[in-house]
Amino acid sequence: MNTHRPAKRLSAAAALPLAIIIEAGAIAVNVGGLVTATLAFLLCFGVCHQVRLARWRHRTA
Hints:
Blueprint: H1 8-28, H2 34-60
């Protein structure tokens, strides 16, 4: 199989705006910080990458 799996860099780029929005909301309710920013990014990254993988698998199947 010569097709490449989706790059994690693109998933990270897609997750960053969502993480920023989540962090802005967390700051608005006074619970924002480095830990919530990191968790928001990791959560969004995981979701974005799984969606991209599912689409890729659907196209290659």
